[in-house]
Amino acid sequence: MTTPQLVLSIIYFIVALGLIAVVMLQSGKSAGLSGVFGGNSDTFLSKNKAKSADARLARMTKWVAVVFMVLTLVICLL
To answer: Against a cut of 0.85, is the pTM above it?
Structure first.
């Protein structure tokens, strides 16, 4: 294994862990429905804060996934 391959493999591993972390930090789509039955009463501001955080995590997931796919192609070509 050459030095560039080793460096790319380490970066690939770090990006893979980052992708897993970003996906795990997102709230599930069914979280809104569980609040109906649980009697969870959020204020308007807390709901918007959660949506903005979820939107930020969704954007991060897309970008980390793109980096992951590009690294996959580069490693396969080497």
So the answer is: no
